[in-house]
Structure formats: C-alpha cells, structure tokens
Amino acid sequence: MGVIRKKNIAKIENQYVQQREKAGIAESRKRKLLFRRLAVFALFASVISYLMISTYISQSAALEKKQVEKEQLEQKLASLQKKQEILDEEIVKLNDDEYIAKLARKEYFLSEKNEIIFNLPKEKKDSQDSPY
Fold it and tell me: What is the number of other CB atoms lying within 10 angstroms of the CB of residue 125?
C-alpha cells in the first residue's frame, strides 16, 4: 500500500460553498495585500530610519568639530585680549616723556647731561661660573 490513491470526491455545488470559496479567495488576497503593505511600510521605515541615523551621526561629528574649533578660537581670543592689554599699557607709557627718555637711553645708549653710560657684559646663569 505504498501508493496513495486519489479518491474521487464529488464537490457540493451550491451557493453556500461558492460563497465560502469566494470568501477564502478574498481573504487570501487581503492577506497578500496586507503582507505587501507591511513589507513596503517596513522598507520605507528602514530607509527613513537609516537617513535619520546617518544625519544624526554626521551632525554630531560636525557639532563636535565646531566645538573644538570654538575652544581654539576662545583660547586665541584670550591671548589676543592679553596682548591688547599689554599694547594699551605700552601706549599709555609712550605718552609719558620720562618713559620715552628712559627707553631711548636704554636702547640707543643716549645720555643726559653729565651722565656716563657703562656697558656691562651679560651675566651667565651657569652654576660653574658662580662662586656660590
């Protein structure tokens, strides 16, 4: 009995059976359409998610880069402000005649009346030359 025999079974052909077959066919079509819609929705959602994540990552990297650049510029600004203060002080000093005279005597070896200038050699800071 290894061979399976097909049995000839007669179908009932009435209106109820035809309605059930049509309902079954309609149900299978609805399932196929639902599956296709869900597949398209999942594909669309995954594409949107990928775009959002990639945008987030690129913006995070750009933001981090801008923050590093901002810190560097703030440091540069602080150093420039210190330099500005020094230059402002220098301007105030250069408006003083005594400071200009002192600067001229120091830089250009100019002297006042009855003043003698001595050039002293620069001292070395080596411990060998020092007696102490």
Answer: 7
Distance CA 43, CA 100 (A): 80
* φ, ψ dihedrals at 74, nearest 5°: -65, -40
Whole-number Å distance between alpha carbons of 129 and 51: 73
Whether the full predicted model's pTM is greater than 0.70, yes or no, is no
Q: Are 100 and 94 in contact (CB under 8 A)?
A: yes
Residue located via tokens 């959002």:
52
Cα–Cα distance, 97 to 87 (Å, whole number): 17
Dihedral sign computed on CA atoms, order 111, 116, 122, 127 = negative
Burial class (CB in 10 A: 0-12, 13-18, 19+), 105: middle
Contact 83, 76 (CB under 8 A): no
Using the structure block, give the residue that is written with the tokens 């179908």.
11
Alpha-carbon span 119 to 117, nearest angstrom: 7
Query: 111 falls in which pLDDT band (50, 70, 90)?
Result: confident
Of 127, 129, 105, 128, the closest CA to residue 117 belongs to 105
